[in-house]
Amino acid sequence: MNVKKLDVNYLSTLIKGAQVSKKIEDPIKDITNLGLQSSCTIYVKQGKSQWSGSGFHVGNGNIVTAAHVTPPDIQNIDINITFNNRNFFKAQIVNSSPEIDVAILSCPDIINEIPGLMLGDSDTLEIGDLVIVISAPEGFHDTATYGRVSNIHQTLGENAPSSAWQDIIFIDADIMEGSSGGMVIGTDGLVYGIVMGVTGQHADMGIGESSISPSNKINQLLQSL
């Protein structure tokens, strides 16, 4: 078999060209950076127990997260949030609804420090829409995964662990442990939901449908403040 000899000079020219070529502008990267500046890691401690979750600022010092990250029925919990893993702020629960798996925390110290994101109308989402999940899995801050909406208005029926699992959104972006409460942001820069977790027969192994609580449920809780 004849093997064509590699032209070293030609290869060198290609490498030099690649080094000086301009990086292609990526609008999805811009949307990701928009979300990153408002994304936070949430650390919760009660006695000797501690855990972490994700959240984001929607303005006026209000942080949105999942209700199971900051359960309303647990007493004497200490909540700290950080947007850069260096500066930490105290936060308090102002409203938490396990029925929709959404909680609102208050942190007045960030009102003039951290930009707030706007919520979109989750009823306008369509199967195939590109979405970005920005969260803090296992405390690793500012982690982004990408995917598409795989189904909308889903329900787990009588087998659902709670009413929060009725009328939810499925996406195919990776969701890792600790991502609960993280934002799901669209290509228009609006947030269309928060991470609930993975559901399915093998959810305990992290395999299943990535489930999202729609932004319209978040809006209902915010309006009740």
Descriptive overview:
The chain has 225 residues and is mainly beta. It has two domains: 38-110, Trypsin-like serine proteases (Thrombin, subunit H), CATH 2.40.10.10; 122-223, Trypsin-like serine proteases (Thrombin, subunit H, Beta Barrel). It has three helices and twelve strands. The protein has helices spanning 8-20, 27-36, 215-223, and strands at residues 39-46, 49-57, 62-65, 78-82, 88-97, 102-106, 130-135, 143-154, 168-171, 183-186, 191-199, 209-214. It has a six-stranded antiparallel barrel with strand order 1-2-3-6-5-4. Strand 10 (183-186) and strand 11 form a beta hairpin. The longest helix is centred in the N-terminal third of the chain and has 13 residues, at 8-20. The protein is globular, with a radius of gyration of 21 Å. The N and C termini lie far apart (76 Å). The relative contact order is 0.18.
Describe, in short, the structure shown.
The chain is mostly beta strands. It has helices at 8-20, 27-36, 215-223; strands at 39-46, 49-57, 62-65, 78-82, 88-97, 102-106, 130-135, 143-154, 168-171, 183-186, 191-199, 209-214.
Sum up the structure in keywords:
single chain; 225 residues; mainly beta; Thrombin, subunit H; 2 domains; six-stranded antiparallel barrel; six-stranded antiparallel β-barrel; 3 helices; 12 strands
